[in-house]
Amino acid sequence: MPAQAIVVRDGHNYVFVVGADNKAAQRKVETGRRVGERVELLQGLKAEESVAVQGAGFLNEGDLVKIVQ
Fold first, then answer.
1. Span 32-37, average pLDDT
2. Can you say whether the dihedral through the CA atoms of 25, 16, 64, 59 is positive or negative?
3. CATH code of the domain in which 11 resides
């Protein structure tokens, strides 16, 4: 996972999963090793889920997200 996708709040690590409705849902994750700008996720995310990477630190639960590829 890109390190910029991980948000630290209240001493816990979170990512924002983007659902089919393009809304952000905060998800608590457990991180593992860090190598450069990549972070290993041990728990909290399914392989098929989409995660907000850029601007994740500014998101809140339920925010509308624009998908850019």
1. 96
2. positive
3. 2.40.420.20
